[in-house]
Design brief:
The protein is α+β, with helices and mostly antiparallel strands. It contains four helices and four strands. Helix content is 27%, strand content 21%.
């Protein structure tokens, strides 16, 4: 019984060493563990069954290069709904069509949101710019141009950028 247990322990030690070499070994050695059964293959008549091995000439490398990396899943353009919103509607100064002096009616609006901060208070500033068009001539659409931002296309107001810069460089706080 003791001899049987010793032989079983030896087999388990060898298996453990093989698995540790597969997991923790060098990358080139991970898949190189060959079982004893594979060493004694019957190759038969090798001269009659020869087929040339296809050379891919690096096709696998080209495929890896052409594969695009998936873009990260980011929450771009949607600010959290739980933050309070401050809306500012910017109306155009004229109420008549520049072509025919007819009355303008609202045909749509553009809404942009930026993240703003009042020290210790975060809020979202919504800028609403209504579009107006004339029903008579249907040629001109009037809308006030958007306010310029410190970072073009960014979602941070000037106050938020100034706050972050002050905290980072004046008070030496981490971002």
């Amino acid at each position: 019984m003791v001899i049987a247990l010793d032989t079983e322990n030896e087999k388990l030690r060898v298996a453990l060493e093989v698995f540790q070499a597969m997991i923790f070994g060098a990358k080139s050695e991970r898949g190189s563990v060959i079982s004893a059964e594979q060493g004694s293959l019957d190759l038969g008549d090798l001269a009659t069954d020869t087929t040339p091995v296809a050379n891919d000439n690096g096709a696998g490398d080209a495929e890896r290069r052409t594969r695009r990396r998936e873009s990260a899943k980011r929450n771009v353009g949607a600010l959290p709904k739980h933050l309070p919103r401050v809306e500012e509607v910017i109306e155009p100064g004229v109420a008549q069509c520049p072509c025919c002096s007819g009355a303008l009616h609202k045909v749509g609006q553009d809404i942009s949101e930026v993240l703003d901060v009042i020290p210790a208070i975060l809020r979202v500033l919504r800028t609403i710019r209504p579009k107006y068009a004339c029903r008579a001539c249907e040629g001109a659409i009037i809308q006030v141009p958007a306010k310029p931002r410190l970072v073009t296309g960014g979602m941070a107001s000037t106050a938020l950028i100034a706050y972050v810069a002050t905290m980072k460089f004046a008070w030496h706080l981490p971002l």
